[in-house]
Structures are given as C-alpha cells and as structure tokens.
Amino acid sequence: MNKELRTFVAQELRAAGSEKQPKVEGYAATFGTVANIGQFSEVIQSGAFKRTLSNGDDVVCLFNHDDNMLLGRRSAGTLTLQEDSKGLRFSCDLPETTTAKDVYANLRAGNLKECSFGFYVNGPEGERWSQQPDGTMLRTLLDVTLFDVSVVVNPAYGGTSAAARNVIAEHVEARMTSLTLAQGTEARRQKAAALLAEIAQEENEEQTKRLKLRYENLFH
Q1: What is the count of structural domains for the chain?
Q2: What Å distances lie between residue 141 and 130, 169, 216, CA to CA?
Q3: Same-domain pairing of 182 and 117
Q4: Do 31 and 92 lie in a common domain?
Q5: Are residues 195 and 104 in the same domain?
Q6: 38 and 90 assigned to the same domain
C-alpha cells in the first residue's frame, strides 16, 4: 500500500473544551467536495472510511504529520472519529505537552485553520477513475484505510483549488496516465468505427443507386 496525504481548509476546525481539558475538533475530510490537485480532480465518497471505523483501526492525531508531535490516539480513547453526512469528524483531547499547548493556543488565535489526513487506498476497488466533460480525470475515493489526522501549518495542497506539491504518489500518476491512454485509445477506436460505418453506408447507397440504374435500363 502507498501512503497519501490530503489537506483541506477546515472551517470548523476549532479549539474546544476548557483550559482544564482542551480539545481540538473539526473535519479531517468532507464528502462530495471536488478537489483540484493539479494532475486530476478528486472527491471522497460517503462511507470511504467505514472500514477503518468499523475495524477499530488505530489512528493517531498529530501536528504536521509528525510522529514526534502526538496529540491523541484512538486506541487510548483520546481521539474519536465518526462519519456523518458531511464527512469525517474528529475530536481529540489534548495532553499536557508543549506541542499540544502550542497547537491549542494557535487554534484559538486563528493561526492554525487547516486539517489533513493520511490514508491508503484499499486495493483497486478502493478507487474509481472517470473522465469529466472537460477531458480531465476524476478520482473517487471509495474505500481507504486512515492512519492519521493532523492539524497542519502548510498544507500539501490548499483547499479545493490549488496545484499539488509532492502529494501525488508515483503509482497514482501511473494509474491516471494508463487510464488516460486507454480512454484515448478507446475514443480513437470509436471514431474509427463510426468512420467505417459511414463509409460502408455511403458504399451501400452508391451500390443501391447502381443496381437501381441497371434495373431501370432493363426496361428501356
């Protein structure tokens, strides 16, 4: 499996709880939002995280995807995750660490406002590729394994309309390229078939005209 990261401007990311028990809450991902990440567009289908949530997979909450800046952990009960109609919602009870205190203070000050998640696609059935009307490719995430949610300073890509920066794994690019080539070949095949059908129709019409003329000449 290949690790991938995605980042969204999470408007509901906020500092919650109290000074005694600070929390960070928000959405690590939203469903149905098409993100333009450069080479292709991507959208997350509702239920994409179902396997992770139902299997009880361990997931960590980090700052900037740094394992040394741990904020919470699902197996410890300090991180809770759930899917709702909007997306993947999380809530993390922050520990009494310097990192957690800094994150909480910066959230309250509005200096931090973006959230990211790390995932693996669960095999070929975990994604679906399609071509959009403008010819660009759309990747739909159907089934992924989540391994972390993070509060981040600089996103891998910002919001839903910015160029990707080192977030597209080589295997994804290869998959997209092969599908694009395959679709291009199929499009050319369909055009060729249509042209042959048109030529055959014209030939049939011309042959019909010749036969009709010969028939008429028999009686003159």
Answers
A1: 2
A2: 12, 15, 66
A3: no
A4: yes
A5: no
A6: yes
Dig out the tokens for 23 from the structure. Answer: 């929390």
- Token readout for 59 is 């997931």
Task: Answer for the pair 150, 13: CB distance below 8 angstroms, yes or no.
Answer: no
Q: Which domain holds residue 190?
A: 170-220
53 burial (CB, 10 Å; 0-12 / 13-18 / 19+) is middle
Q: Are residues 110 and 177 in the same domain?
A: no
The reply to whether 35 and 15 lie within a common domain is: yes
C-beta contacts of 105-110 below 8 A and 24+ residues apart: 107/13, 107/14, 107/15, 107/24, 107/151, 108/15
Contact of 70 with 94, CB cutoff 8 Å: no
pLDDT values of the chain reduced to their tens digit, one per residue, 220 residues: 577 777 655 556 888 888 788 999 988 888 988 887 777 888 999 999 999 999 989 999 999 889 999 999 999 999 999 999 999 999 999 999 999 999 999 999 989 888 888 888 998 899 999 988 888 889 999 999 999 999 988 765 444 333 333 355 555 656 666 665 555 555 556 666 666 666 667 667 777 666 666 656 666 5
